[in-house]
Amino acid sequence: xxxxxxxxxxxxxxxxxxxxxxxxxxxxxxxxxxxxxxxxxxxxxxxxxxxxxxxxxxxxxxxxxxxxxxxxxxxxxxxxxxxxxxxxxxxxxxxxxxxxxxxxxxxxxxxxxxxxxxxxxxxxxxxxxxxxxxxxxxxxxxxxxxxxxxxxxxxxxxxxxxxxxxxxxxxxxxxxxxxxxxxxxxxxxxxxxxxxxxxxxxxxxxxxxxxxxxxxxxxxxxxxxxxxxxxxxxxxxxxxxxxxxxxxxxxxxxxxxxxxxxxxxxxxxxxxxxxxxxxxxxxxxxxxxxxxxxxxxxxxxxxxxxxxxxxxxxxxxxxxxxxxxxxxxxxxxxxxxxxxxxxxxxxxxxxxxxxxxxxxxxxxxxxxxxxxxxxxxxxxxxxxxxxxxxxxxxxxxxxxxxxxxxxxxxxxxxxxxxxxxxxxxxxxxxxxxxxxxxxxxxxxxxxxxxxx
Length: 452
Fold this sequence. Notes:
Elements: E1 6-10, H1 14-26, E2 30-34, H2 37-46, E3 51-55, H3 63-72, E4 79-83, H4 88-96, E5 101-104, H5 109-142, H6 150-163, E6 169-172, H7 179-188, E7 197-201, H8 210-215, H9 232-235, E8 240-244, H10 251-263, E9 265-266, E10 275-276, E11 280-285, H11 289-294, H12 300-306, E12 309-312, H13 323-333, E13 341-342, H14 344-352, H15 358-372, E14 378-379, H16 409-423, H17 428-434, H18 439-451
Parallel strand pairs: 1-2, 1-3, 3-4, 4-5, 6-11, 6-12, 7-8, 8-11, 13-14
Antiparallel strand pairs: 9-10
Helix pairs in contact: 2-3, 6-7, 13-15, 16-17, 16-18, 17-18
């Protein structure tokens, strides 16, 4: 749901539509207006609304027909009816039709806003329920851990051991190794398995929105905060909260996260109420948090708090026994790849490749291979000819011959950056490692390349 609630107003009287629109927009809501039920259905097909406020009596598709059509098309948006015919019988009938509430004409503004606030709470619950179903559907397709190697067997054993104990887990590993899948496995093996698993990518949240994303906010806490909104901690109550890329969490937010972990309670942005929460926290990062602590980029006390039980996932190049089983499983996850198979030569080529982008890169390569073999359904060595096997490693004492006329050093650097990105499938962390650089130094080179 957007931070500014979006309401559809349906009434065949222009005066009533305009009155409601002005009143609600003055309170910070966004509105659209429909002149009857058919017009409303057309708008509902194009937009996602948080609430519908509709008249009952309308010439073309009245309110009753509108809500029946909405439910028939599985549009679960709450509906408030406005009617001039306030009888017990009509109120009961409207509720039976699926209305969340009703108000009578002439309506009191304060009462209408209170009714809207109640309906918006229902709207948030409906959306969260829909999001939860999507998460369950998604994880139901991809959460299976596929492995054959001794290294991953050890990882799974550690995950099983810690799952039964309600403690913080820190999953370490390069980008694309499957840290979220291991976190999900910990959740599914725990006593919280029937509750929510809520993933949060800390690197994807704007620094000024981290706290409202994690802890929620009160109505009026900032511009656009038109209604109280729960954060991920509250949404994950009784379940598991997965904080991916925790190394990218801003320093000022790290202190508030530490307090929530230690005291098991927090305050919403703009609020004073202490909200207790029962959440199992699993963190993950591809960064060296100890080094970041030394560089004062990560709080030492938070590091000690989350580093209770670390699990290190080895990169795919260190567990070659997993490559073919993973490849065979990944192929079947694509709707257009269910009948595809790998030849022995293709399997050998996949095992020879160093996979700087790990399992994520493997999935991308296989998707391309499936597309190239739609007619035959057979992925061969020739199919994977685009996959360049790593060249022999160069010794640490690299000898580069300087041309007689010289060459700009920056040009050499940018060329190496481009080659490293290509070899790593545009994964900056993996590309930095190919050049023996930290990710921050590599990012500077990429920025210079972009400015060229």
